[in-house]
Amino acid sequence: MESEQMNEFRPLILVAEDDDSNFKLIKAIIGKKCDIEWAKNGQEMVELFQQHQERTKAMLMDIKMPEMNGYEATSEIRKSSADIPIIAVTAYAFTEDEKRILENGFNGYLSKPIKAQTLLQKIKEFLN
User: Fold this and answer.
1) Greater confidence, 92 or 6?
2) Which residues contact 86 (CB under 8 A, 6 or more apart)?
3) Residue 24 needs a FRET pair 20 to 30 A away by CA distance; which of 13, 39, 62, 72 works?
4) SS3 category, 68
């Protein structure tokens, strides 16, 4: 049993989300299979990524956050890593919003409210 746990792949996912209830939902959906670090704003996300860059496998990034929004944080992260998958998780749900997000350095897009199956599918897509 112990050797199974040692061999279990637990990717680190960084989550930028300023709303506690949204973070708790994301954690409930992916927390059993992934290690999670939480940033409450874009500036914290940039700092978390700098601390865990080698281990981070993907990021979930809210767009509208205090101090530094998701666009600004993604721009900063892209200066040091073009490869890390960054998925926007946002209430901005129009086609033009998705287009703007994808044109600004994000690899994927999910609209809120968060649906468990959609979130799991999107993460799996980028971790494979």
Assistant:
1) 92
2) 58, 59, 61, 74, 77, 105, 106, 107, 108
3) 72
4) coil
Q: Buried b vs exposed e over 63-79: b needs ≥16 C-beta within 10 Å?
A: bebeebbbbbbbebbee
Kindly report each contact of residues 94-102 with a partner whose C-beta sits within 8 Å and lies 24 or more positions away, as own/partner.
101/63
In tens, the pLDDT along 68-103 reads 999 999 999 999 999 999 999 999 889 999 999 999
Residue type, 45: M
How far is Cα 60 from Cα 30, in angstroms, rounded to an integer? 11
Which two structure tokens, joined as six digits, stand for 71? 């666009």
Which residues have CB under 8 Å from 48's CB, separation 6+? 14, 37, 39
For CA atoms 94, 117, 82, 18, the dihedral sign is positive
Torsion over CA: 74, 75, 78, 82 (sign): positive
